[in-house]
Amino acid sequence: MIKNNKKDLKKWIFATVVPILAFMPWCFILFGQMARVHSGYWITSLTPDTAIVYLWFVLSPGNKILNGLPVPYTPPLLYLILAIILLIAILSLIVVFIRNKKSFEEKYAVVGMSVIACVFILGLIASLVYRPILHPRYLIPSFGCLWLGISILLSRNFEKKKLFVPIVILLLVVGSISTINFEIQQEKNYQLTLDTTQIINELDGNCNIIMYRGVIDYGINQWLDHNNHYVGVGYELDRNLTQLYGRLIDILSDPGVQNEMSHGSKAYYVFENNTKNTSVFEFNDTDQLKFTEIPNRLNDKMIIYEVQLK
Predict the structure, then answer these.
(1) In angstroms, what CA-CA distances link 143 with 34, 139, 169?
(2) Of 205, 232, 180, which Cα lies nearest the Cα of 292?
(3) Which of 30, 122, 277, 284 is 20 to 30 A from 94 (CA-CA)?
């Protein structure tokens, strides 16, 4: 068999080896990320509720889970109903596939659809055995295989109008709601970004030292006042205030920072009001640090403290 298919075998080996080699540089990033796993690990612990919500994310027109909102998350009833109906529709296509004579294309479609199930199951096992690593974002790369498989199976049932037409209408409804919902959400995020940067730019002081956690990223740099100095303190300090205080002291003790502050600069610590990080919401003065909370119009989204060395 191998002897008669050497040409095709070479193509298959080439097509397999090239993507593996292309992804090899990413392994350094993977190992680096694994080395930085800490007590404040951000992926939610896996429970029956979170597993169901992740599955719901695949089928529902809602996008909120993608943005990392806390789970379990109760979806709107309409979205939940549509997700259940869509799941039934997909299962109906698979049942028809099992009952009928199977072509190569249909077998290919089902194998492609199974990819997302395998990712989910492997992530589930790894999360239970090692630590939570399953997140709905990690299912996104397999969406292409899922919907390609559904498209192939659906096209093979074109003549069965009672099956074909309702599923197409359902897909159009879910897709339309998803698009509108995503657009609304992006607009809200855009406005939040503008408000966030405006508040930071309007903080009292000149050439301020902005120490941040999770608020300032590449997406909003273009709107920030570049006369300020921005310093990240790291997500890993979220749940250890002693280490966080130590990091703030190190930053404020820097001779360059001290020089700026002697000329009118002020230092601020800025972070998102994220319910997963309640341990950093309230700061108390220490022997070396003084905290003054700065009220702002986004208090439900962002918290700001002026920080001074005593």
Answers:
(1) 25, 7, 20
(2) 205
(3) 122
